Amino acid sequence: MDVEDFWRLLEHSAEESTHPQRRAEWLEYRLSKVALGHIMDFQIYLDTARGPIDTWNMLGGANLIMDGLCSGDSFWYFQPWLIGQGRRWWQHAAQNPDNLVDLPAVQNLAGRRPQQWPDAEWPHWEDLSAVASLAYDRRTGQEEGIYDALSERGHPCPSAPQMIGNIWNTDSPAEIEQRLPRLNRLFPRERYLRP
Q1: Is residue 20 a contact partner of residue 118, using CB atoms and an 8 Å limit?
Q2: Are 150 and 47 in contact (CB under 8 A)?
Q3: Helix (H, G, I), strand (E, B) or coil at 77
Q4: Would you state the torsion angle of the CA atoms of residues 75, 40, 148, 53, taken in this order, to the nearest 10 degrees?
Q5: Under DSSP, is residue 170 helix (H, G, I), strand (E, B) or coil?
Q6: What tens digit of pLDDT does each residue of 27-37 get?
Q7: Distance from C-alpha of 148 to C-alpha of 165, rounded to nearest angstrom
Q8: Residue 149 pLDDT greater than 50, yes or no
């Protein structure tokens, strides 16, 4: 599996279902039918795709969209959600997190309180992080065996954000306006202060 195959498979899963859990199940099933090396490749490409979006500015964007509800775990699951939007949108947001405003899935969340978002619309996709591991388990019968196999290939699997870039207060209105002006207009923090 090469990086093009990774993106094709991921984007094809969106054609199969828009529901994150069903997409993950479809991906797990498809991966369980390919060579073990390709399953590992999928995990490596997923981990690699996290790199450009594992930044303080992206955390600020995710936190703004979620109205301050983005913990470290939430940001960890936001990253595969963003990758799951497809290569085009992932690249666009990676260039500048303020570009998150252009994603149709982000625009769909605007104007509603997070409490009003159905689970399937929340900007997180925890299940994507596990599809390669589950497919590997299914093929080998070894629970979480993929991690030892990846370690042998020299690939340490990250398990939490390792944000790069300048550290800043992602709850500061002034810093948000400076770094994410377009996203701030779409998701003004005061929108949830109204009854």
Answers
A1: no
A2: no
A3: helix
A4: -20
A5: coil
A6: 999 999 999 99
A7: 30
A8: yes
